[in-house]
Amino acid sequence: MKKTLFVTLCIFCLVAFSSSAFAAKGWRAGKKTYKSVCMSCHKRGGEAQRLKLNQWSKAKWTKYFAEEKKGKHADPWGQLTDEEKDNLLKYFHKYAKDDHTRLGCG
Ligand code: HEC
Fold first, then answer.
1. Ligand 1, atom nearest to 76 Cα
2. Protein residues with CB under 6 Å of any ligand 1 atom
3. What pLDDT, in 10s, does the model give residues 70-88?
4. Dihedrals phi, psi of 32, to nearest 5 degrees
5. What's the pTM?
6. Closest residue (by CA) to atom 43 of ligand 1?
7. What is the C-alpha separation between 1 and 56, in angstroms, rounded?
8. Where is the Cytochrome c domain positioned along the sequence (predicted)?
């Protein structure tokens, strides 16, 4: 009887843990894209300034992501899949001016 309870508890913990890891996966993938794609220019000493993710609100980032990209951005943005852009936006939202969830454990 005790063993069943223990096993149930283990499964519960496993599910709870993996689902929170899954939720975090989006912005983490976005962070990687940011580093590999955006930071090729947006870095100290690069051809563009480092981006401050908290310079804009979530709404502004969403708007910016929806705009068509031209010039310098046509190329890097063009190579991103919709999923990558989605995750990138999640990462930007996480550190946007009006997001405070990062103060919690998320
Ligand atoms: C080929 C180089 C290059 C790459 C790659 C690049 N950018 Fe830029 N970006 C620029 C330049 C140049 C500017 C304008 C000048 C500056 O900020 O120094 C700029 C400006 C910006 C701005 C400010 C726009 C504004 O209107 O104020 C944002 C936001 C931005 N980039 C986001 C991104 C994101 C997100 C990525 C990755 C998907 C990215 N950039 C990749 C070159 C690049």
1. 5
2. 37-38, 40-42, 47-49, 51, 64, 72-73, 76-77
3. 999 999 999 999 999 999 9
4. -65, -45
5. 0.79
6. 41
7. 55
8. 27-91
What size, in residues, is the chain?
106
Token pair for 38: 């955006």
Q: What is the CA radius of gyration of the chain?
A: 18
Q: Which of 78, 80, 79, 87 lies closest to 31, judged by CA?
A: 87
Q: Are 34 and 89 contacting, i.e. CB atoms less than 8 angstroms apart? A: no
The SS3 call for residue 62 is helix
Q: What is the pLDDT of residue 4?
A: 82
Residue with tokens 């969830």: 101
The residue with tokens 């999923």 is 83
